[in-house]
Amino acid sequence: MIHGSIRIICSGSPTILMRIRCVFMKTAALLDKKTLGVYRSWFNGFVKSFYSSDKEIHRNIVLKEKHTQNVCSEIKDIGASLDLNTEKLVLAEIIALFHDIGRFEQYKKYRTFSDQRSEDHALLGIKVLEKESILEGLDQSHKDLIYWVISCHNMVKIPETADPEYMFFSRLLRDADKLDILNIVTHYYKNREAVNNNALVHNLPDTPVISDSVKACVLAREYVRFDDLKTLNDYKLLQMSWVFDINFPRTFEVIKERHYLEKIRDVLNLGSEQEEAYAVVRAFLEERLKCINS
Ligand SMILES: [Fe+2]
């Protein structure tokens, strides 16, 4: 909201300076680059308040800070591929910027990124945004949309809603979020010997097995549920199964271009089972790409 002041100059008489406090004139902040800049600055300051001299804490705060920056880049890229206008691109980036704002409090309080072992980070994020009143200047309809999309970004499925805009931005965020998590985990799996970080893989044991329910999900081309995870291999298969929950052509293209499915397959230690799982997700990806290009 803007509380403006107006300067009135009357001719034929000494300049009369009237400052009229326009307390009744409320103008919602525009969805433009300026508003986005204000939010980015706030985000940077907010995250810095969680920096710590404890290496482990600091590393995980920076991890989520970088993740947020990357999700902002991914969402812009997907949005651009859909020819979104500036207002929609800004709205998408605001959603990406704040989608994991609850992660910082979560890690500070519980030392984990596991919602199961702490609390739902999406709902925690809404509490943070409300407490900080950061979105107060926005139009109520935009604020409602942002809160809704953030609140369900970590659900297994997007809840049914009649509003196509809510669904659209929800799908956009989920695709962008997945792309960067795939980036983080594939990098981590490759370099895990050097930089072990149990918080990133939810302390799951690295045993050479997969759970039957997880394997059944992948073979049925279904999205694996977090509650079914028992091993690190289960978690890797869950990430492979994200391909079944991708929404936009650009996201499928990026998954292929960056070889995310192959990178996960190569770090599974399951023998023939890993090829079987990989074949299913890869076939699904190819089918989708064929549909896009036909
Ligand atoms: Fe995220």
Please, could you describe this protein's structure?
The protein has 294 residues and is mostly helical. 59% of the residues lie in helices and 1% in strands. It is built from 12 helices and 2 strands. A two-stranded antiparallel sheet has the order 1-2. Helix 2 (55-81) crosses helix 7 (164-191) and helix 4 (102-110) crosses helix 5. The longest helix is centred in the middle third of the chain and has 28 residues, at 164-191. Bound molecules: fe (ii) ion. The site of fe (ii) ion has 5 residues, from helix 2.
Topology:
Elements (H helix, E strand, L loop, with lengths): L4 E2 L13 E2 L11 H16 L6 H27 L4 H13 L3 H9 L10 H12 L7 H12 L12 H28 L20 H8 L12 H10 L7 H9 L2 H6 L6 H22 L1
Bound molecules: fe (ii) ion.
Quick structural summary:
With 294 residues, the protein is mainly alpha-helical. The chain has twelve helices and two strands.
Strand order of the largest sheet: 1-2
Which CATH-level-2 architecture of the largest domain?
Orthogonal Bundle
Corresponding CATH superfamily of the largest domain = Hypothetical protein af1432
* Heterogens: fe (ii) ion
Tell me, what's the shape? globular
CATH class of the largest domain: Mainly Alpha
Mean of the pLDDT scores?
88
What's the order of the H and E elements?
A: EEHHHHHHHHHHHH
In DSSP terms, counting alpha (H) and pi (I) runs of 4 or more, how many helices?
12
Strand content: under 5%
Salient structural properties:
2 strands; mainly alpha; 294 residues; single chain; 2 domains; disordered N terminus; 12 helices; 1% strand; binds fe (ii) ion; two-stranded antiparallel ribbon; Hypothetical protein af1432
